[in-house]
Amino acid sequence: MEIDKQHLEEAVRLIQSQIKVSSIFKQLNSYHLSVERGDEKIIHCPFHVDDAPSLNINDVLGKWHCFSCDRGGNAIQAYKSLIFLDKGIKLSYADAVDQLLSSIQSRGDIFFTTVKKNNRFNVDDTFTVKRLQKMDVALKVNMNDIAQWMKRNNKCSFRDIAQISDFMMEGMSPELILQYLENIDTDSKNQRENTAITAADLLSSVDW
Q1: 74 with 10, same domain?
Q2: Is the dihedral of CA 80, 81, 82, 86 positive or negative?
Q3: Whole-model pTM?
């Protein structure tokens, strides 16, 4: 699977700013504190027999390094290595980023859910959150509400939302769009899995 480099860079920056390296070791039960010196923590390295604690963690720098086995890196590399140690699962760097990204609640302007290309919820290159915000100002409505409803309910891609925003500029109200979305039968699991709302569906079904 091809990686979206821009999304990868944005996701890595977010993870490094939101997730402490020490929290990764704690989460995966590999944190046995021996010494704490200011911003630095010295723990027993989980990757080898470590009688004398030799793994240094610095949450301010977002780095970790073992002076005995020379393993080290950032929070993502810690997660990737510890998942393999704990569960025997060999994650790619991108998979590790995706899993950590999914654990972050406050993502700011990041709306994509994976750093891999061709994902239905990746923000289209020509349709960004900034454009949504401009639509808010132009139409006095909250387009983000529509976008988030669709994303939560697995109904359509951001490319569809881009098309919808164009139709809104031509006169379709957000109230009609939301009314249509809320009336969709969500009781059927098959329908939830197979239905993808498109701008064409909206135009053909809304009573003008």
Answers
A1: yes
A2: positive
A3: 0.57
